[in-house]
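Q: Entry one of two.
A:
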Amino acid sequence: MAIFLIRHGETLGNASRTVQRPDNPLSPRGVAQAERLARRLEYLGIAAILSSDFARAMTTAEHLRRVTGTPISYDPLLQERNFGDLRGTPYAELGFDMFAVDYAPPGGETWEVFHARVDRAWALVREAATATGGHLAVVTHGLVCRSLAARHLILPEGQEVPVRWENTSLTVVDHPAPWRVRLLNCIAHLDDPATRTLSDSGAV
């Protein structure tokens, strides 16, 4: 069995380079990305979907549900890092690096608090994967993926934690432990209009 770790599709905030709000919707391009991802995973035996309850993740997960018929569970532990008062601000207007290790966004989460929440999210994912009679799809956000990859997953030899997690990127993690990654931050389905399956990429 495997855990399919997925970042949501492109949003209007991604496209406009704006710090995102929880209700930020997918852009038209993001909807197309989610459709291609769903077609890629349609016949691979997904038995459960676990998603962040932010709009962009929920919509991405819904596209997957439509083609697989698999029910979705939502959990706030899978939300993106909370940047508090910065949400809704264009990156160009910030004047500083909001991702800096020592920066604490007003009304938001420090890195320490965020990573602690991701730890709890990972415990939830492991529990859900164990209870699932097939593959588990987890739809979440870029910084959550990066935190998991840096702190909980064993990456393929010679590969490093990606700085950027692509929209609708797919990361395949073997279940159960030791949580080895077989496919990392892959967007092959966006390169080919017909999409490519995991078997096409050599991952399964």
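Q: Entry two of two.
A:
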Amino acid sequence: MTMYNMVYDITIGKYKLGMIAGVEIKRSVELLSDTAIIHLPAIAYNKAFNSTNNTLTITEKSIKAGDRVVIQLGYNDTLYTEFAGYLEHIENENDQLHLYCEDAIYLYRKPLPNKEMINTNVKKIVSWVIEQLQLQHKLICNYDVTYDKFVVADCSGYDVLKKIQEELKPNIYIKDNTLHIHPQYTEIFGEAKYDFAFNIEKSNLRYKDATQRKLLVEIQGKDKNGKIIKVEEGTTGGDRLTMNISGISSTASLKKIAREVLLNKGGYTGYEGTFTAWLIPYCDAGYKVSIIDNDYEYKNGCYYVTQVETKFDDNGAERTITLGKKLE
């Protein structure tokens, strides 16, 4: 029988973490940034960080916001990079340090000059943001939505990206020094397989028929005169989702957004909800996962993962995986 020993390798700036109380990581295609929290125990105050030649006393001054963070977790001799980003802020509670980290979207937390853009689109807006912040990021954007007017007022690059992500629901992420903006579900980053009899620790999954997933999506925009433009897509008699989007009055653009939301949220027979597994197999947001149940084979299928929450502490290591729509 294989024994699994939990191992980690965590660096902050030029220092390596020698002791932790736990780590929490959240990766999601529905949130703007991936985040991590590193918890340091009180007894680690004098030995949590070490460099090549010396040991540092831990205070908030030992490390600072903007320091590079890399978190690797795993079993035995196998480590996976679970998070890479930057230290966003530090909280001190009951002599314990909690290190809050954010992925490379952190680099966009810088102020922008005020600007009003007329008849623009997502690609033009974000290109301007990258230029203003003087970031060395390329941009790949195939989310073609036009704004009548987009106003930047007393906000950061992060705020602009967050507004676009929350209103239009694209997947926004940074990979290999490139900022990506794509419709959800259009990219598969990897695959994993889960079996109720083998590697699903606990399940909060619910199996629902497509007839139970009736959804009506209502999108409201507003023209330059303040008149509300409303479009609807879907079926009445079930859930209703209403979204308000400022700066867009094009019926075609609003319908496109409504159709994508409807496609991603409803209309399939299969599972919804979450389940909990261990660190292996590796799984990330944007993965395609196979769900196997040999007792009810008609329920077997493949799903898109919208979110993965990973916890690593004295109680063990686990992932809570949230399923999106059924892929096959």
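A: Comment on entry two: The first helix runs from residue 122 to 132. The CA atoms of residues 210 and 268 lie 5 Å apart.
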